[in-house]
Structures are given as structure tokens and as C-alpha cells.
């Protein structure tokens, strides 16, 4: 019952699904964050189903735009603010205190806008290729991988002073065994679908650690914004890795 309630709390926060729960405690909210990869399974299932529907349009360009719109609607575009804020701060080349102020600024800067545009273009291209080549299982695994990478970052990084309370609490409660369980489960599931997905997952996880180390060097750790950045960027990286591995000859059979 406790797991299911925290799972529903996570769904209500990370998606637009009409779930309303009463008397949610702070502990329940933060514990629900540990279920991000599980919530990713639900998001992935919805993306797979929607991708299958729009694939019948036989217009990959239009279908990929609809996929972008559907993902933004489903998640409420929750993490895009973190993407823009983090990119604005990191590329400002300012000191730590100034970067923290930039991340808390609600205004969108030029670097953040460029970052969002490039991310959207990457996802549009990825969705187009996935739908065109019938690789729909990638849509299911993508949000799981992105949210696993957030858990991995929360476990192995530290709280960035001045970044707000969200980053501090999640780094305190995320343990190595969370990472180990999710890592094994995702790798096994990916291997059962197609080994290439496990390779892409492994590469993405390693690149995420590199990004995590770079953010720790520049801003001192993680914040709520960098968690959002991690999810969206690693989702894009995972798709790119799958498509690169596919087109260099490793091969991935069409999946529905």
C-alpha cells in the first residue's frame, strides 16, 4: 500500500494524469522521487501506444511533431525549465553564486533558449527515425533510462549549496542499492528486447556520469533544475546512441 501510494504521488507530480491524493506528506513526496524509473515505465508505455497510433499516418515528419506535443502534454513540460535554467547558468561562465542566481531567475536567457531548440530538434529527428523505421520499443525504454540517470546522479553527486532544498533531500535518501536494482532491471529488460538497447543504455549511463562530474565541478553538485536537465538530456542521448549503433551496422530489428 505504501509503495502504491508513493507511486501515485509520483505519477501525479511527474505527469498530467488526473490523480488527486489528499494529505501528502513531505516524506511521501520525496520517497516518490525514488520511483522515477518506475514512473518512466508508465510514460514509456503511453509514448509507445501513441507512437503506434501516429505511425499509421504514414507521415513521419507530422508523426514526430505529434510525438513531441504528446510528450510535453503528458509530462507538463516539467523538466524543460530545468534544462533552460541549467544551460543558462553553466554557459554564463560566472562564479558559483552568480550561477545559482541565474538558475533561480524565472526569465529565459539566450543560452537556455538555444539549448531548448537544439533539444527539441534532436528529439524531433529521433522520433521521426524511430517511427519511420518501426523502432517503437525505444519509445518505451527512453523515459525509463532518463529517469534512471536522474537516480544515478542523485546517488553519486552531492547537493549544490544555494540550489534549493530539493537537491539536498534527494541526495540524502538515494542509496547505491537503488541504482543497482534499477541498473540490473533496465539492462535485463533492454537485453530481452534487443541487445543493442543495452549497449545504448550503458553508453548513456556512462555519459551521464561524465555530465554529472562536470556539473559538480562547475556548480558544486545537483539541484532540482539539474535533475530535470539530466532526465531530458539523457533521454535524447539514449535515442541518439540507439540510432547511431543501428546505422553503423550493429542492427536492430523493427519492433512494435
Automatic annotation (TrEMBL):
Signal peptide: none annotated. InterPro entries: CobS (IPR003805). Its EC number is 2.7.8.26. It comes from the Bacteria. It is a multi-pass membrane protein. GO terms for cellular component: plasma membrane. GO terms for biological process: cobalamin biosynthetic process. It catalyses: alpha-ribazole 5'-phosphate + adenosylcob(III)inamide-GDP = adenosylcob(III)alamin 5'-phosphate + GMP + H(+); alpha-ribazole + adenosylcob(III)inamide-GDP = adenosylcob(III)alamin + GMP + H(+). Its cofactor is Mg(2+). Its main location: membrane. It is an enzyme of class 2 (transferase). Pathway: Cofactor biosynthesis; adenosylcobalamin biosynthesis; adenosylcobalamin from cob(II)yrinate a,c-diamide: step 7/7. Keywords: Cell membrane, Cobalamin biosynthesis, Magnesium, Membrane, Transferase, Transmembrane, Transmembrane helix. GO terms for molecular function: adenosylcobinamide-GDP ribazoletransferase activity; cobalamin 5'-phosphate synthase activity. The keyword Oxidoreductase does not apply. The chain crosses the membrane at residues 29-50, 62-80, 108-127, 179-210, 222-245. The keyword Transmembrane helix applies. Joins adenosylcobinamide-GDP and alpha-ribazole to generate adenosylcobalamin (Ado-cobalamin). Also synthesizes adenosylcobalamin 5'-phosphate from adenosylcobinamide-GDP and alpha-ribazole 5'-phosphate. Belongs to the CobS family. This is Adenosylcobinamide-GDP ribazoletransferase. It comes from Pseudoramibacter porci. The gene is cobS.
